[in-house]
Amino acid sequence: MDDDTGILIFLAAGVLVLIGIVVFGVLSSRRKRSATKRTFTVRQGWIGDQPFHESSDLDASDTRQEELFRLTYPVGGSIVVSGADAEGEPIERELHVSRIGRSLRAGWPQAKLGLSVHFQEWEHSEFPARFVVTGTDGATSIDLDASGARAVDRAENVVWSAPWEKLTFSNGNDIVLGNGSSKTIRIEIPDGDPDLEEILIKYGTFRQMHF
After folding, report:
1. What would the pLDDT profile of 124-170 be if each residue is shown by its tens digit?
2. In this structure, what are the phi and psi dihedrals at residue 39, rounded to the nearest 5 degrees?
3. Helix (H, G, I), strand (E, B) or coil at 123
4. Residue 116, class by beta-carbon neighbours within 10 Å (0-12 exposed, 13-18 middle, 19+ buried)?
5. Among 150, 158, 192, 204, which one has the highest count of C-beta atoms within 10 angstroms of its own C-beta?
6. pTM, to two decimals
């Protein structure tokens, strides 16, 4: 009888723990969905001489923080950005938000989401451009213009291409590029130049293809 009582107490305690975990999870989820305070910070980055703003790492499941980011930087809205004039003197400019980019941050199992703000004043200013890469299908460079991206091999053959409206990317240890079909390529940037990755984030669509 004592053994039975002990087992019942143990099972009851286990049930209470499970109930507590579920209740805590529900309350935590509700707090996230109704949050009014930003948990992210914002820093300024550069693509060449083009400024953009990017968030600190966000929990990919925290849709409320992404919503707050988009409310803070609405497409079509304007913000004041610090910079420098031709003589290097500090200036402030009013810039107009044209795009919000989404990208992968960190890695498995703690993958995070990054958000970036891009400005109308530099729309398509990056094109045309060519970046040296190493990639599958013999890709040795990526060509970019206002219509989209093309991967080219050493003989200048196009081995992959996508218009911007269909281009998907996943930026992990390397970059996976898709074009709306089953055809994907993987590329690495040998010289570590961040501009190619940032342009893909700006004009492409993030899709998790790493893990």
Report:
1. 999 999 999 999 999 999 999 999 999 999 999 999 999 999 999 99
2. -100, -5
3. coil
4. buried
5. 204
6. 0.81
